[in-house]
Amino acid sequence: VQLQASGGGLVQAGGSLRLSCTASGSILIRIDRMGWYRQSPGKQRELVATLNRSGSTTYGNFVKGRFTVAGDYAKNTVHLQMNSLETEDTAVYYCHSLSDRHYWGKGTEVTVSS
User: Fold this and answer.
1) Bridge partners of residue 72, in order along the sequence
2) What SS3 class is residue 89?
3) Is 87 helix (H, G, I), strand (E, B) or coil?
4) What is the DSSP code string of 29-88?
5) For residue range 30-82, what is the model confidence (pLDDT) as tens digits?
6) Does residue 26 register a pLDDT over 80?
7) How far is residue 16's CA from residue 112's CA, in Å, rounded to a whole number?
């Protein structure tokens, strides 16, 4: 499974960005969960948001209603709408999927300026 992410970039505090990720590869593998993690310099990778095939979602505590994860498992695609961005949201965001094992994308940078 390969994960291709897009949508990162530079935005001012208070602005919005939308990240997208599409999984490709073996069509025989059923993906049960897709989502996003992030890592800032000097910090551990942390959960941002995940979307299960069942439709249930999980968000990191810091999200506080600012982000929304959505997707289409028929297309193996997940999106992350990020609103009210803060400088603390600056990080590399990694797409993640769970099927036969964990898969990670290469990461897309999000920079929030003050």
Assistant:
1) 77
2) helix
3) helix
4) SPP-EEEEEEE-TTS--EEEEEEETTS-EEE-TTTTTSEEEEEETTTTEEEEEE-S--GG
5) 899 999 999 999 999 999 999 999 999 999 999 999 999 999 999 999 999 99
6) no
7) 10
